[in-house]
Amino acid sequence: MNSLAKKDGKGKGYAALFITSTVWGTTWVASKIGVNEIPALQMAYIRQFIAGLCFVAFFMLYKRTPLPTLKQFRWITVMAVLMFVFANGLSTWSLKYIPTGLSALIGALYPLSVVIIERLFFNSKQMTVLTFLGLFLGITGVGIVFYENAFSNHSSAFYIGVALSVIAMLSWSFGTIFIARNKANVNPYYGTGWQMLISSFILFIWAESTQPTVPVQHISFKVWMVILYLVVFGSILSFVAFIYSMKKLSPAISSLYAYINPLVAMVVASWVLDEKLTMNILWGAIVTLIGVYLVNYSIKKNAKLLVEAEI
User: Fold this and answer.
1) What angle do CA 98, 104, 109 make, to 5 degrees?
2) Which residues contact 184 (CB under 8 A, 6 or more apart)?
3) Residues 227-252 as b or e (16 or more Cβ within 10 Å = b)
4) Are residues 262 and 108 in contact, defined by beta-carbon separation less than 8 angstroms?
5) Rounded Cα–Cα distance for residues 30 and 227 (Å)
6) What is the radius of gyration, based on Cα positions, of the chain?
7) CA separation (Å) from 188 to 22, 46, 76, 132, 258?
8) How many CB atoms lie within 10 A of CB 61?
9) For residue 301, what are the domain limits?
10) C-alpha closest to that of 56 among 229, 236, 245
11) How confident is the prediction along the chain (311 residues), in pLDDT tens digits per residue?
12) What is the DSSP letter of 182?
């Protein structure tokens, strides 16, 4: 009976992983469609507000979950700024200027930057030959993708988009490190809802004070459908599936979404948005993601050896 339940749980875990991997890939394309009509930060705060309100209302009204403590709110606010204001907000903004696949690929580089940040600022000793090989492949793969357009006459907007995407990726990296070093005793779904809600207010102030936004009544039906898709599938369904897959599957398996998302984004963008997708870009993306996988694998393997040595 227990083995059957375990198998069933794993099966649902793989289904959740499939949802996370594919749906999060398509949200890059949906976001690209949206930012072509309204400012990126405006779309981000509308999305985060609706999704966050859904999560928080469910837990407070249905589950009768109490408000987070002051200590939990401090943790939630830091996470909101790192993961949703900068990571999500700026990556969405970058889509205004650069191809969808490129933005998604830069976002997938966060494990590499986590390793470098840990090494530079926390004196991490977890770097091995395999880690360095992964870093080399990751950087080489991105170089291949960039080489495809190396001799094109890009406007300054292209480089602004790349910069926004890199800052977003670094912010996600710092958020990942913060989670690992600062635990909070709060339901992950409930905590995510509060992060989205808090980030929506910060993004609202940022957007309304720096960008000419579109009045709500003038937002097109197409953009509202994009926002609805991002809220229902990107923010609610995918986040629930992501957390569920982490609970049911091993970290090595549950993290596979990070390698699939960019490829899904590239393929769907080439089909829906007619974005350029050549063999060089595809191979560059694959080399990059192999590098990211090797870095992740080497760190987890080294961490396991350290635990076994302590025992």
Assistant:
1) 115
2) 71, 72, 75, 76, 191
3) bebbbebbbbebbbbbbbbbebbeee
4) yes
5) 8
6) 20
7) 22, 22, 10, 33, 19
8) 9
9) 6-310
10) 236
11) 444 444 556 888 899 999 998 999 999 999 999 999 999 999 999 999 999 999 999 999 999 999 999 999 999 999 999 999 999 999 999 999 999 988 999 998 888 888 888 888 877 656 788 888 988 898 888 888 877 665 566 778 888 999 999 999 999 999 988 988 888 888 989 999 999 999 999 999 999 998 899 999 999 999 999 999 999 999 999 988 988 888 888 776 777 788 888 999 999 999 999 998 888 888 888 998 898 888 878 877 766 654 444 55
12) S
Residue 1 lies in a domain: no
Split into its structural domains, the chain has a count of 1
**Tokens of residue 23, six digits:** 């749906």
Question: Which uninterrupted H or E stretch holds 283?
Answer: helix 279-310
pTM here is 0.86
Q: Please check whether residue 143 lies inside any domain of the structure.
A: yes
Contact (CB, 8 A) for 46 and 204: no
- Contact (CB, 8 A) for 47 and 93: no
As a whole number of angstroms, the distance between CA 227 and CA 237 comes to: 14
21, part of any domain: yes
Residue 181 φ/ψ, nearest 5 degrees:
-100, -10
Does residue 99 contact residue 31 with C-beta atoms inside 8 Å?
A: no
Place of tokens 């948005």: 273
Compute the distance between CA of residue 176 and CA of residue 174 in angstroms, rounded to an integer. Answer: 5
Q: Is 3 helix (H, G, I), strand (E, B) or coil?
A: helix
Grouping H, G, I as helix, E, B as strand and the rest as coil, residue 277 is coil
